[in-house]
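User: Please predict the structure of the protein below. I'd like the answer in structure-token form so I can feed it into my own downstream comparison script.

Assistant: Understood. Taking the following sequence of 157 residues as input:
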Amino acid sequence: MRGRGQASASAPESAKGRGRGGASAPESAKGRGRGGGYVGGAPKLGSQPATGVGTAAVMKLLGTWDGSQGETYEVGKDWSCLKKDAAGSARKYQLAWSADKAAILWGERFCVYASDLTSEGPAQWYRCEDRQKARCAFTWRRAGPEDGGPAARPAPS
């Protein structure tokens, strides 16, 4: 049995010595724990530009969106995304821009392409490796007025 802070021989160097011994991949690659795009977690995977195509794309995501399992997503101008599940638990994530993909990234696994975004939605997220957009991973729909959607919030300035 391993003691606290010891990692197995198969754990990557980045996972060793964090008190989570035996991790098969860095937490940021799994999208759980302290990494995976969480605020204050793993290093940012992309930039958060103040001007240009990336900023125009995130501006289209500003506001409240509904997911397919009763969760909501609130995207801010600071590239933050507050996810609230149906039970009311909340977790804040940090989105980032990938100039290579011309897409907004959610951690390392998911992205929404700037060319597909409209302010009205829907916002279709794909796995980053799915460049052909063969299979949508999940879809956000603009929240209605009762949920803080377009009629309930001021237009972005």
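That's the full token string. The CA atoms of residues 29 and 114 lie 23 Å apart.
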